[in-house]
Amino acid sequence: MDTLDEDFTTPDERPDAAAGTGEAGDVGGVVAAFGRQLKLLRQRAGLEREGLGKLVGYSPSSIASFEQGRRIPTPAAIDKADEVLGAGGLLVALKEEVAKAQYPAFFRDMAVLEAKASHLCEYATLVVPGLLQSRDYAHAVFQQQRPLLSEEVIEQRLCARMARQEIYERFPAPLMSFILEEPVLRRPIGGRSVMRTQLEQILILAGNRNVDVQVMPLDREDHAALGGPFTTVETARGERFAYAEVQTSSHLYSEPSKTQDFAARYGILRSQALTPRESLAFVETLLGEA
Questions:
Q1: Has residue 80 been placed in a domain?
Q2: How many domains is the chain built from?
Q3: Which of 27, 85, 246, 286 has the greatest number of C-beta atoms within 10 Å?
C-alpha cells in the first residue's frame, strides 16, 4: 500500500484557521448542516430547546450550540435526538461525517484508525499524548496554539479529544503503550495545579491492565527515536499503520517497509526507557515534587 500524506504549509490553510467554525470546509459545512436539520426537526416536533434538552440529557444552551454549529454532539446524543424527534435515521445518517469533522483534517484518518485499533503505541516528545490528557491539560494545550484558536474551536477540539478517551471503555480492550520523554512530565503546561492533576491522570490510566506507560529519562546515552514523535497502530484484521505529525504536517504510512521500521524503532525505544514499574515510580516522585 502507498503512503497516505496530508500536508498544510501555511497558517491560512490550517483546519483551525477559520475562527468560529473550527474548519472552513467540513466543520462549517457538515456541522452547520446537521445543526439546521436538528433545528427543523425540533420545531416540527413542537419542542423548545429546553424540552429537547430534557429528552436527550443536555441543557438548552447546549442544544443551541448544536443547532448553531458551535458544538459537535456525541454519537450517543445524535442517536437519542434522532429517536425522540422521529427523524427516521436522518440525523444518524450524518453521524459519521459529524464525528470526523470534529478533528483537524490532518488527523481524521488517524482518528478512525485509533478508534478501531487492537494495538496502539505512541512516543511523545513535547506534550502528554491526547489519550492520556486530563481535560484541563488539554484545554491549556489548545490555548497555547499559535495562531490563536477561537474559544469555539477550542471547545470543539476539547470535546473531540475527550471523546477519543472512550477507547478505554472498549471491549476487548486494545493494548496500548506510551513512551514519554522526561521533559514532557516536567513542563507545567497550564500551571502547577493543572500539571499535578495531569500526573495523577497518568497514574490512574496506567493502572489499566491494557496500558503501559514508560518514561525516557534525560540521562540515557542511547536513543532509537531521535527523529521525533510517532504512533503505530495495528487493527484486529492485522493491518499496520504508522503516523507522524510535526507542526502543520502529518503522514500516515501503510507501506509494510515503513510500518516495520517504526515498529522496530519503538521496540528498541521500549528497551531503552524505564520499565513500566520504574516509570510509575518516577511519575509518583514528580507528583510529590509538584
A1: yes
A2: 2
A3: 27
d(CA 256, CA 262): 10
Note whether 131 and 150 are same-domain residues: yes
Examine the fold and report which residue of 74, 101, 128 is the final residue of a domain before the chain moves on: 101
The answer as to whether 221 is a domain residue is yes
Task: Kindly state whether residue 2 falls inside one of the protein's structural domains.
Answer: no
Residue 94 and residue 126 share a domain:
no
pTM of the model: 0.79
Which residues neighbour 265 within 8 Å (Cβ) at sequence distance 6 or greater?
224, 225, 230
**What is the block-wise mean pLDDT of the chain (290 residues), using blocks of 10 residues?**
35 32 53 93 96 95 90 88 96 88 85 94 98 98 94 87 92 96 98 98 98 98 97 96 90 97 98 98 95
C-beta of residue 219 within 8 angstroms of C-beta of residue 273: no
Task: Compute the CA torsion angle 124, 127, 133, 136 (nearest 10 deg).
Answer: 180
- In a domain? residue 9: no
Domain that holds residue 44: 24-101
